[in-house]
Structures are given as structure tokens and as C-alpha cells.
Specification:
2 domains; 461 residues; 22 strands; 12-stranded mixed beta sheet
Length: 461
Amino acid sequence: MTSATATAQLPSTFDEKALEEFLDSRDEPAWLTAQRRAAFAVFQEKSAAPLDPEEFKRVNLRTFRPEQFSLGTAAAATDHLGGMMQDRTDFAGRIVHVDGHCGDVSLESELEAKGVLFGNLADMVRDHAELIKPHLMTKAVQPETDRFSAWHAAFWTGGTFLYVPRNVEVNIPLYSLIALSNANCADLSHTLIILEDGAQATLLEETASADPDAPGLHVGAVELLIGKGARLRYTQLQNWNEKSYHLAHQCGRVAGDGFLQWTVGGLGSKVAHIHQDVHLDGRGAEAEVNGVTFSTHRQTLSYYTKQAHNAANTRSDLLYREVLRDRSRVAWRGMIRVEPDAQQTDGYQRSDALLMSDDARSDAIPGLEIEADDVRCTHAATAGRVDEEELFYCRSRGLSEYEAMHMIVEGFFHEVYDRIPVELVTNREDIEEQGAFEQEPIGLVRAVLSQAVEQKLGIGD
């Protein structure tokens, strides 16, 4: 998969024979089958060419053997999957995917009555083809981007679909869990969210491995389509075990006066690479992108982000913070792109890294491509070690080394935590009255990230 050859040698579990067997097992409309075949042709072509060195040169895929992985054949049990958010609060709807199959889905009847759709994409694409066909991998994630996006477009198995009609507000968060249960299983799930004009919703999504020692593969995609004046909060917590690969294409598109808050948590996997794009397509569109990463051992976590300002008076604000231990490595390559017509753009990006060992490495490469002349675009990147004086001060107050590290890391992440106002639902009436976008920034996502920090430091369960 990582070398350039004249003829692509596709993995036997994802070659042309495997595609035909896969298509025969699906009950899908003809247009989707044609879309898959076209994507497979791109997959063959892209697999014969080298990956973009600018994007992938810091991602070590030399030991990646895709032929070791295959699609799951049946849904596994949905209990004991290790999700960190699933039992912490009350959700308006939830969906669970295990080994690429939907195992559980629910949605409150009040939302169904308002026309909200929430369920398995593999089912929804049959029942609501007229709604999904114009949006599925046509406006956001593109199969032609590279071999991984084409691979996903040809073989995606299911995923989470959310549709919120015009001016409908979903004030209680929705929840999605994507899990791997069996060893050497490949998950190619797809998340598609469509918010019509004036709609509001919050989706919390996480990944998990049921077996900490089972190798796994995720080749996924996320598409977030926000209409005029719509508001979406989307959080994805990546927490695979450290024997899994996570290769994902993710893209959000925001129409005029729309708002997207997108939070990414990077905790698990052996190697992870996320290609993340945000397009601000209409006047007054806004996007806030948050990232929290904690890498340990020999993990490699990579992010390739783009904030594309395609219209005037748009604003984007990206803040990533990374903590690295042991011999782990984190790479971030960010770009703010401003089109000629995108005057009065306000774009900002920043990546800060905290290194907790001599052998950890952080690479941060911000960039600007500006073709308008009335803009304010800035970027920054920092990296540094834990302050020994801070550590000594904490330990002199009776804290152990791990507890002191926990306090320092929590403080480092605090600015990102404060930008994520997704509350624990303790009083549904108050939240429904105030709206999900009015809650204080202390809640579920912060609690989960704090627990993850403890586990990474070796002081949690």
C-alpha cells in the first residue's frame, strides 16, 4: 500500500473478487453499486501511485499490511465494548456499530415525529435514497483524494446517519459508538450528518476496541453538512487499542451564518492519520476546531488539517493541544486557505505540544495560502518540556509524580476543555428550555478526556 508500482497489488481481502462478493452480499440501490465500482477503479489507480509525500512522509506505514485485515461477517455482541461516554448520561438517541455492523439503534419518539432521522447509514440509504444520494461523498469527502478515501468509498459497510429538518432543534446530545471486537477486523464505517437551514444538533461519537490485544483497522470517513444558520457540535473520541490503524478522511461544509464546533480526541491506535477539512462556503459561516491528543509508547498520531474560506466574512479558529510520552510521535500539518472572494476573513490556527520524555517527538507545520487582501489570518505552533520547577512544586505539596503530572497535563488541556460545552444531562427540562448551545463548559466530554488522561498516566482504572 505504501510503495509505487506500475500495477497495483491490492490486498487479497479488498481486491476485485472481494469487491464482487461484497456487492453480492448487499441490498443496495443501483446508483450506490455504480458509485462503489467507480470508487474501486480509483482505488486501483491510486494504489499504484505513491502517497502524497507532503501529507504522509511523517506517517510510518512500512509495517502496515492491509491483507491481514478483512470485513466482519456478522454483528458481535454490543456489551463490554469499552466506550467511555456511553453510560455516563442520558442521550436523545444512540447507535452502536461493532465490526462494521449495526448492533443497536434508538431515537426518542418526539424527534422522530419532528422528522429527525438517526440510524444506520446502510439501512437509511435504501429507505431515504432521495435524501442521501445528493450528499454521500459528493460534497465533502471525495473518493479521488487518495487511495484511502477511494478504498473507503468502495467498501464502506455502514455507519451513522443524522438528518435534522429545517429549524428543528435537537437539544439533547445524540451518541454513536464504533467498535471493533474480533481480531484482524476492518471497520469502514461512514458518518454522514445533514443539518437543514436553521437546525441544531449535537453528536458525540467515539471508537473503542473490545480486546486490547486484537489488531484492528479503521478506514473511515466523516461528512458534516451544515445549512444556512444551522449549528452543529460534533465530537469524535478516537480510542482504539494500540494495535489498531486509524486512517480517516473527514470534512465539514458550513453554509452562510452556520456554525460548526468540531472536537477531535486522539488517544488510541498504533498509527492514526486524519485528513480533516473545514469549508466555510457562505457569508458569515463559522467553524471552531478543537483537538486534544495524548500519545504514549510508540504511537504515531498524525493530523492534516485545512480551513478553507470560500466566502466573505467567515471565521475559523483551530486549537490543537498534544501531550507526548515515551517514544511516541505526533505530527500536525495545518493550512488556512483564503479564496480571492473571501474578503474580511478571520482565520486562526494553533498547535501546542507538551513533551514528557526525551524521546518523544512533535512536528507542527502551520501554513497560510491567502488570495484576498482584506483578511486577518494568523498561526502559531509551540513545543516544550514539562517544567521541572512546576513538577517539584506539586510534589513538595504531597502529590506523587503521576498525580503531579496529571495536574500539569490537565492545566495544559484546560483551554481546549473550556471550548467544549457539552454538559452531563442531569436536568433534561433545564437543558430543553435553555438549549444545548447554552450550557456551561464543564461536562461529559471534559470528564471523559480527564479520565483518559489518568489512564494514559497510569493512575486510572
